[in-house]
Amino acid sequence: MHRIERDRTRFREIVRGRLRKDLRKYLSSTELLGRRGDKAVSIPIPQIELPRFRFGDNSKQGVGQGPGEEGEAVEGDAQEGEGAGSAGDQAGNHILEVDVDLKELAEMLGEELQLPNIEPRGDRQLSTEGGKYTGIRQTGPKSLRHFRRTYDRALRRVIASGEWDPRNPQVIPIHDDERIRNRKSVSKPESSAVIFHIMDVSGSMGREQKDVVRIKAFWIDTWLRSQYDNLEVVYIVHDAVARIVDQETFFHLRESGGTKISSAYELFLDQILEKYRAEEWNIYPFHYSDGDNWSARDTERCVGLLRDEILPRVNQFCYGQVKSAYGSGQFKKDLDGALGSMECLITAAVDDREGVPDAIRAFLGGGA
After folding, report:
1. Disulfide check for 287: which of 25, 28, 155, 198 has CB 3.0–4.6 Å away?
2. For 190-364, CATH number?
3. For 194-211, how does the pLDDT look when each residue is reduced to its tens digit (9 = 90+)?
4. pLDDT of residue 55
5. Exposed, middle or buried: residue 331 (CB in 10 Å: 0-12, 13-18, 19+)?
6. Is residue 46 within 8 Å of residue 94, measured between CB atoms?
7. Which of 228, 231, 301, 233 shows the shortest CA–CA distance to 264?
8. Where in the chain is the domain with CATH 3.40.50.410?
């Protein structure tokens, strides 16, 4: 068994090596999005098959058994098939699905894109259970009973009641004598982060543009979860009006109509002022759009919100512009022109799926 486990472990390392080699392909693919669990992701690896025994019924006669002379054709094997299509001459593809821990996947992402570890900014005081049983209480599970404290309490009770007999020194603890070990809660600082995924869902954002957003959001979440123990994700969609939605709605909502980007920025600002204070949270907003906005006046409103209210409160603000046949792409030009000198504003243009890795590196490569 030990040898089999060694062989299987070695095989899985070969598979992981293949995954690392082909990781850039997965960075621009939606293959992983529907295969994600709480702690692992199932990854299809082609053309690798795990060797295994195949059991069957050996009671029937087959090749090498029964009558017949050497060189004779085996009955049934020499006949031509009647199926549709012609015979192929290429090997088949064997698909193996391998579960990879999300932390390991994040490590591969960091190596592939050369991402630095993030230096957290805000600390949130969380009450957590300590690692040592330093307290005593009178109630609790029997498995945590403190024998010495319980016996001492029982002995004191017996002596005080005058029931102690030196010739028969018997002490039987009762319920009131029991003392239970207690692990006290202590407060310790824990770095917390919140991700805001903000997406334009107006009529100019089609299915392909939303798939690009899904891919980027998946890898951004994977990386930041490897950097923070306490992470929350908020989803905001907007056309002319912005609202908070759940993850399922965020990735599958189909809208039409115009675009007013300031509505999303105002809703985002309300959230961080009311719920995610910059003194306690590391804040990472990611806005995805095709670059169309309702008017130049609304763009000026967005620039003012970013410069005066949003950028001073966030770790960094990332704007990803997805190319669309209906989008002008003007919004990125306006942001770069007005706020391009501010380090905490990162903008990236994504023409197609192949540009996703470069956009992720631009967003996460600063280590902020």
Report:
1. 198
2. 3.40.50.410
3. 999 999 998 888 888 888
4. 66
5. buried
6. yes
7. 301
8. 190-364
